[in-house]
Design a protein that fits this description.
It is a single chain. This protein starts with a strand and ends in a 9-residue tail after the last helix. It is built from 12 helices and 16 strands. The radius of gyration is 20 Å and the shape is globular. By secondary structure, it is of the alpha/beta class. It has a 7-stranded parallel beta sheet with strand order 10-11-9-8-14-15-16, sandwiched between helices. The protein folds into 2 domains: 146 residues, Rossmann fold (3-Layer(aba) Sandwich), CATH 3.40.50; 185 residues, Rossmann fold. The longest helix is centred in the first third of the chain and has 13 residues. β8, α7 and β9 form a beta-alpha-beta unit.
Length: 371
C-alpha cells in the first residue's frame, strides 16, 4: 500500500516528464505540447525497457505511459515502477472496453491520473486537450508515493481514532438528505475508501471525479462490484436516493434538481467551468440551490480550485461541509482552496471522511452566511 505526501517543488519550478508510448505520433505530439511550456522538460521512450534505462540515468518527475506496448505491457511496467522506484504515473489509454478496465486497474495499482487516447485523430485530440494535459502533468508532479501501512494523520486537524473496518454500522435512512462529493488527482482510490465505508441505507450521494468519458463508466462499474451500496454513472433523470451513489459522466456536467418525488440528476453539456467538465463547482452550486441545509459537501484530494466556490455556496445555503486533510491527500490543492475561502466546517483524514459526512447528515443547524 502507498500513502501520498506532497513533494517539494524544484527551486526553478521545472518538471521532467518521460513519455512512454510505441506510437511515434503520440510521442512527437506530446513532446511538442508539453515542451511548449518552458518549465517542462520532455523525454520519450518507445517501450518500457527503454524507459527503465532512461529512468536509471535521470529520474523523471512524472511518467506518462500507454498500456499496450511491445516487450512489456503498461500494467507490468506500472507494477515494476511502484515496486522498485515509485513515481507519479499518468496512464494514457484507449477507450476500448478492455483498455478502460486496465486503466481502472492502473489507478488501483498507484497511477495518479488517466487520460484518454482515441483510436483515430490522436494528433488533433492531443492538441485540443493541451490545457488538460499540462494541468494533469503539473498536478501529478506535486504527488509523491511513499510506502506506508496507513495514511498518516495530521495532529493539527485530527484526534486519534480507531480506523474503521468495513462499512459503518446500520443507521436509519436520512430522508431528504444528500451528500455531494468532489475529487480530482488521487480521488479514485479516495472515493473507493469513502464509498466502501457507506452503509446500505446511506443518503444519496452525487460525485464529480475529474476523469475522461468512458472511464467514468468503468470506474462506477468497478465500484459497484466492490461496495455495499449501488454505484453507477449518472444518467439524465436518475433518482438520487438512499443507498445509491451517482458519478458524473466524463465530459458532462452533473447537477442536482428537486422534483415532487425527490432529488434527480441532470446531466448536460456546457463549457468548461474552473477548467473542468465535469466541474465540482457546477455540482456543488446546484446542490446549494436544490438541497440547501439538507446537504453535506465533501471535498477531496485534487489540484486547483474547482469546488472551492461551490462548497462556499453550499455552506452559505446552510449545508455542513468537510475537507480531506493535507496528510492524506495526493495533492492538497482543492481542499486547501476551499479551506482558504472559509467554505469548510471540518478537516479530517481520508479514513474519517465517511464517518464525518454521515454524522453531519444527522446534524441540524440554521443557515450561516460565510464571506
Amino acid at each position: 500500500m502507498f500513502s501520498y505526501t506532497n513533494k517539494p517543488k524544484k527551486p526553478d519550478g521545472s518538471i521532467h516528464v518521460l513519455v512512454v508510448d510505441d506510437s511515434a505520433v503520440v510521442r512527437q505530439v506530446m513532446q511538442g505540447i508539453l515542451g511548449a511550456d518552458p518549465k517542462i522538460k520532455v523525454s520519450v521512450a518507445a517501450d518500457p525497457i527503454i524507459a527503465f534505462a532512461k529512468i536509471e540515468r535521470e529520474t523523471p518527475d512524472v511518467v506518462i505511459t500507454d498500456l499496450v506496448m511491445p516487450r512489456m505491457d503498461g500494467l507490468t511496467f506500472l507494477r515494476k515502477i511502484m515496486a522498485e522506484r515509485p513515481l507519479p504515473v499518468v496512464v494514457c489509454s484507449e477507450v476500448a472496453h478492455r483498455r478502460t478496465e486496465d486503466a481502472i486497474s492502473a489507478l488501483e495499482l498507484g497511477a495518479v491520473e488517466v487520460i484518454k487516447k482515441p483510436k483515430l485523430g490522436v494528433r488533433d485530440f492531443l492538441h485540443e486537450s493541451a490545457v488538460m494535459l499540462i494541468d494533469v502533468v503539473r498536478s501529478a508532479a506535486q504527488a509523491k508515493l511513499t510506502p506506508a501501512p496507513f495514511p498518516p494523520v495530521s495532529p493539527r486537524n485530527t484526534a486519534d481514532v480507531i480506523l474503521p473496518l468495513g462499512p459503518l454500522p446500520h443507521r436509519k435512512p436520512a430522508g431528504g438528505k444528500i451528500i455531494a462529493v468532489g475529487a480530482s488527482t488521487g480521488g479514485t482510490e479516495a472515493l473507493r475508501e469513502f464509498l466502501q465505508s457507506m452503509p446500505r441505507n446511506c443518503p444519496g450521494i452525487v460525485i464529480v471525479q475529474h476523469m475522461p468519458e468512458v472511464f467514468t463508466r468503468a470506474f462506477a462499474e468497478r465500484l459497484n462490484r466492490d461496495c455495499t451500496i449501488e454505484v453507477k454513472e449518472a444518467a439524465n433523470g436518475d433518482g438520487i436516493h438512499n443507498g445509491r451513489a451517482l458519478i458524473a459522466p466524463g465530459n458532462h456536467h452533473l447537477l442536482v434538481e428537486g422534483s415532487p418525488s425527490g432529488y434527480i440528476a441532470k446531466v448536460e453539456d456546457g463549457p468548461l467551468v474552473s477548467r473542468h467538465r465535469p466541474s465540482v463547482d457546477v455540482l456543488f452550486r446546484s446542490v446549494a440551490r436544490s438541497a440547501g441545509s439538507h446537504a453535506v459537501g465533501v471535498i477531496m484530494t485534487g489540484m486547483g480550485n474547482d469546488g472551492a466556490q461551490g462548497l462556499l455556496d453550499m455552506r452559505n445555503a446552510g449545508a455542513l461541509t468537510v475537507a480531506q486533510d493535507e496528510a492524506s491527500c495526493v495533492v492538497f490543492g482543492m481542499p486547501k482552496e476551499a479551506i482558504a475561502r472559509n467554505a469548510v466546517v471540518e478537516v479530517v483524514p481520508l479514513f474519517r471522511l465517511a464517518e464525518t459526512a454521515l454524522t453531519m447528515v444527522d446534524a441540524t443547524r440554521p443557515p450561516e452566511r460565510c464571506m
